[in-house]
Design brief:
The protein is an alpha/beta fold and 287 residues long. The protein folds into 2 domains: 234 residues, Phosphoenolpyruvate-binding domains (TIM Barrel, Alpha-Beta Barrel); 45 residues, no CATH class. The chain has 11 helices and 10 strands. β9 and β10 form a beta hairpin. The longest helix has 17 residues. The protein starts with a strand and ends with a helix.
Length: 287
C-alpha cells in the first residue's frame, strides 16, 4: 500500500467518492470524524459498505480507542463485513495490539472467519505514554502489518500551541514521534506509514513531506482528502530508474553470492544496499 485515505464512515457519499480516488486503501473512520451521536449509524453504514466492497477494494476500519468503551461495539458492528484490517488509534505499545488481537480472534470465531484473517495497523504516537512504548510492538501479534503515527492528539495531550512551525514543518516533539514510529515499524518488521498532511490544498507541501518520508524509510502515507491521493501514489511508486538499479544490485550479488561488495557502473554497493534493493522490488511485485 502506498496511500490510505480516511473517509468518515457515516457518509455514504464520501465513501462512494473514496472508491474513485485511486487510493490503495480506504480507512472507514468510526473515530474522530464521527460525532458521538452518529457512532451507531456509522457502524451500520460501514458494515453495509464492507459487505458490498470488501474483497474488491482494500478496506480498513479505524475503531475508537480501547479506553473509550466503544471498541467492542465497533468490532461487533464491522467484523462480519470482513475488513482487511483494523486501525487502532491511541495504541500504547504491543500490549494494546495483543488486546485487540484477542478481541478479533473471538469475533472471527463467532462469524466463521479464518483466525487471523483481519490484520491490525497501529497508530502509535497519539499519547505521551505511547512514545515510551514504541519499542514493544515486535512479536505482539502476527496480525500486525503496519505502524503509523499522528500528531494532532499528541499535541493536545502535550498542551502545545501548534505542532508545525511557520514554514509548515513539524516541530521537534513531533519529529521525535515520527522517528520513533519509523523505528518501531522497522523493529517489528512491518510497513512504516507516514501521517496525514492536514493542509489538503497545499500539494507542494504534501509532496515535499511525502518525499522526506520516503527518503527516511516510510513506504506509504495517509490522506485526508481524495485530491491528495495522486501525489502520494506518485511519490511512493518506485521509478523505473530505481527499479532498474535495484534489479542490477540483486543480480550482481546473485552472480557472486560470497561478495561483500559489488561494483556497478563505477559505484560500489554493499550488503545493506542489497537489503534495500530487495525490499524495493518486493513493493513493486503484485500483492
Amino acid at each position: 500500500m502506498r496511500s490510505l485515505l480516511f473517509v468518515p464512515a457515516d457518509s455514504e457519499r464520501k465513501l462512494a467518492k473514496g472508491l474513485e480516488s485511486g487510493a490503495d486503501a480506504l480507512i472507514l473512520d468510526l473515530e474522530d470524524s464521527v460525532a458521538a451521536e452518529r457512532k451507531a449509524q456509522a457502524r451500520e453504514t460501514a458494515f453495509a459498505f464492507l459487505r458490498q466492497h470488501a474483497g474488491s477494494h482494500r478496506l480498513v476500519v479505524r475503531v475508537n480507542a480501547l479506553d473509550t468503551g466503544l471498541t467492542d461495539a465497533d468490532l461487533d458492528g464491522v467484523v462480519a463485513g470482513r475488513p482487511e484490517a483494523i486501525l487502532l488509534p491511541k495504541a500504547e505499545g504491543g500490549a494494546a495490539v495483543t488486546h485487540l488481537d484477542a478481541k478479533l480472534t473471538a469475533r472471527e470465531a463467532i462469524h466463521g472467519l479464518p483466525e487471523g484473517s483481519i490484520r491490525i495497523l497501529a497508530l502509535a504516537t497519539e499519547t505521551a505514554a505511547a512514545l515510551f512504548l514504541c519499542g514493544t510492538y515486535r512479536d505482539a501479534s502476527p496480525r500486525l502489518t503496519g505502524i503509523t503515527w499522528g500528531a494532532e492528539d499528541l499535541s493536545a495531550e502535550l498542551g502545545a500551541e501548534t505542532n508545525r512551525d511557520a514554514a509548515g514543518r513539524f516541530t521537534s516533539p513531533y519529529w521525535l514521534a515520527r522517528n520513533l514510529s519509523l523505528a518501531a515499524a522497522a523493529a517489528a518488521r512491518v510497513q512504516a506509514i507516514d501521517t496525514v498532511y492536514a493542509d489538503f490544498r497545499n500539494m507542494q507541501g504534501l509532496r515535499e513531506e511525502a518525499e522526506e518520508a520516503r527518503r527516511d524509510g516510510f513506504t506509504a502515507k495517509m490522506a485526508i482528502h481524495p485530491a491528495q491521493v495522486a501525489v502520494i501514489n506518485d511519490v511512493f511508486t518506485p521509478t523505473p530508474a530505481m527499479i532498474a538499479t535495484a534489479q542490477a544490485i540483486v543480480a550482481a550479488f546473485a552472480a557472486d553470492p560470497s561478495a561483500g561488495v559489488v561494483g556497478i557502473g563505477g559505484v560500489m554497493y554493499d550488503r545493506p544496499h542489497l537489503t534495500r534493493a530487495q525490499r524495493l522490488l518486493a513493493r513493486v511485485r503484485p500483492q
